[in-house]
Amino acid sequence: MIKLTNKRVFIAIELEESIKDYLQEMQNKIIKNSTRGNFTIKDNFHLTLKFIGEVEDEIIEKIKVCIDDVASRQNDFNLQFSRLGEFPRGNKTMPWVGVKRSESLDKLHLDMENSLEEVSIKKEGKKFTPHITLGRQVVLNRDFSKLVDEIAIEDLTIIVDKISLMESTRINGKLKYIPLYVKKLK
């Protein structure tokens, strides 16, 4: 009997090394103003287009077809950072860097949602808030709004020329995001 192995996956926009370096600088400023937190390692910085969750290999193959379909209809585009934000969770928070609204990003996200729905992957029930997570369960030692006032966000360009199917897994106890499939945009 063959044992099926599930993978925890999501679709993402991977980031260039220089952008990851910049995000790490932002993250370090937050770390200095935190008592604790689970901070994203530099190699894991990305922008999630669609979180999918645990799936079998058969579904992964269907997801790849969806990615091919969507990528074949989408031109390369650029994004810019917008602001430092947070998703508060009680006395903890999830700080992130957002990107400016973009018709191209919105189209890519919607096309991906629609294509995945055709293979029985449900659409997200909430509004798409494009962001790059800097940390989870962060306990700040000062008010977040004060940090926002002090941390200026540079208007850097993020080049979006491919989309990636990523696996979320643990390697030697550390959370790692591994590209399973990468497709260039047209």
UniProtKB/TrEMBL annotation:
UniProt motif (HXTX 2) ranges: 131-134
Keywords for the protein's UniProt record, in alphabetical order: Hydrolase, Ligase
Enzyme Commission identifier(s): 3.1.4.58
One Pfam assignment: 2_5_RNA_ligase2
Gene Ontology terms, MF aspect: 2',3'-cyclic-nucleotide 3'-phosphodiesterase activity; ligase activity; RNA 2',3'-cyclic 3'-phosphodiesterase activity
Motif HXTX 1: positions: 46-49
InterPro entries according to UniProt: Cyclic_Pdiesterase, RNA_CPDase
Record flagged with keyword Ligase: yes
Active site: H46, H131
Spans traversing the lipid bilayer: none
Catalytic activity: a 3'-end 2',3'-cyclophospho-ribonucleotide-RNA + H2O = a 3'-end 2'-phospho-ribonucleotide-RNA + H(+)
Superkingdom classification of source: Bacteria
Family: Belongs to the 2H phosphoesterase superfamily. ThpR family.
General function of this protein: Hydrolyzes RNA 2',3'-cyclic phosphodiester to an RNA 2'-phosphomonoester.
Protein name (record): RNA 2',3'-cyclic phosphodiesterase
Native source organism of the sequence: Clostridium cylindrosporum DSM 605
